[in-house]
Predict the 3D structure of the following.
Amino acid sequence: MTHARRNPLAALIGLSLAAVASYALAAGEYGDVTYERKAATASAEEVPVAVFPHWIHRMQYKCGACHDELFKMKAGASAPVTMDGMREGQACGVCHNGKKAFESSFDTCGRCHRQ
Amino acid sequence: MGLDAETDMGQTVRPSHAVARAACHRVLALAAVAALECACTSARPALEFFFDGVPADGVLPQPAAVVHQPRRPTYKAPEVHETVIVPQQFKEEVDWAARYAALPRNDAGDVAWTKALDEKLIEPKPGIADDAKEEEATDLDLEYVPEGQPEYKVVFPHKPHTQWMGCPSCHSDDGLFEMEKGKAKMTMASLGEGKYCGACHGKVAAPDLNGCPACHTAIGK
C-alpha cells in the first residue's frame, strides 16, 4: 500500500522508497492510496487492485474520523483490508455497508477495483 | 246413418267370419279417423303441455346456431408476483467531482483544504458516527529556528492541523512527534524520507504548501 507522490522535491529525496512505482500505479488523484494485493485469489488482469480515493472522503469527513482508530495513518500499518472483513463491518465496511455508503458487492467492484 | 245401415245389414245377415272381419275393419277405420281427428286438434295443446317454446302454426322452428366452445381455453398468462428489490439510493446527487474541482487551490495547483474548510466550502464531519462531536482546535504556533539560519525559521501552526484530526495522530508513543519541544531533529531530507511532517506532506496532505514560504515564513517576507 503506497501513497501517490506528486511533490517533485519529496519524490527526489525519497526515491529510495517505492515512490516511483506508486506514482506510476496511482495516476488518479493526489492522495489516492493504491493497495497491494496480498491474496492470491485473483489476478490483476481479472480484478485490478483497489484504490482508495482520499479526496472524496476528505470532502465529507475530517481526517480524525477514520484516523487513527479505524485506519493507521501509516500506509500498510493497519490490518489488511479484506472483502470478507468489510462484509463483517471491518475497515471500509464500517461505512460501506449499504446503509451509510454503498456496500461492496458485485455491482460496485469497479468503484474501488479500478485501473 | 251408414253405420245404422250396415248394422242393420249385419243383423240381418247371418254372422260369418267375413262379416266379422268387415265389421272389425270398419271399427278400426272409425278409430283411425277418430285418432286422426284427435291428433289434428290436440297436437298443439299436448306439445305445449309437455314442451316450452313450441313454434306458432306455420312457423318453422329455426335451429339455433351451434356455438362451438374452443377446444381449449384461451391462454391467460398467470399473474406474476414480482418482488422488486430497489437498491438503496444514496445521496449521490451531490456531484463530488464537480465540487472537488471547484475547491480553491494553492499556487502549486493542489487543493487548499484548510482554506476550503475555513471558507466552509466543505463541511466534513468530525467522526463516522452521526452524533460525533467536533473537537476544539488547538491554537498554538511553534517556531523552529535552524542554528545559524534564522532566515529559514519555520512556524508550525497547530490550528489548521488540529481542526482536521486529534492529537494522537501525531503525538503518540510511537508517533511522529514527542510532546517535548526540541526533540524532533527535522531536516528537509528527513521530511522527504517520510519522517516528521513528511509523513503526510508530500503524500496526502498539501504537498507543496505553497512552496517554501508556507513553512519558512520568513522567506516570504
About this structure: The domain at 2-112 of chain A is CATH 3.90.10.10 (Cytochrome C3). The beta strands of chain A are 2-3, 33-34, 51-52.
